[in-house]
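Morning F.,

Quick status update on the modeling queue. The single chain you submitted on Monday has been processed. Sequence for confirmation:
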Amino acid sequence: MDITSKQRAYLRSLANGLEALFQVGKSSITPELTEAVAEAFNNRELIKLSVLKNCADDPREIGEMIAQRTNSTLVCTIGKKIVLYKPDKDDPKIILPKPSK
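Structure tokens below.
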């Protein structure tokens, strides 16, 4: 799913008040972490992850990999924080701004 910069900014503003649900540690991306993130998308559309200091991988690469594996969209990575978005197919709770022409 492609989102515009305006929609990305809107999602970033919503994620600003969120606490990180998951922490990526020394073992980086594990199948259990990917499965837990995919399961969390059943209850929410916007998820924030935190990459710990002992993780040697790049947070942007981690975000892209998790987004690819969970069929979600990487909204942004700011420092060691990752924000992912996946709209609910049946009943979307977050209404994105319309893309301008």
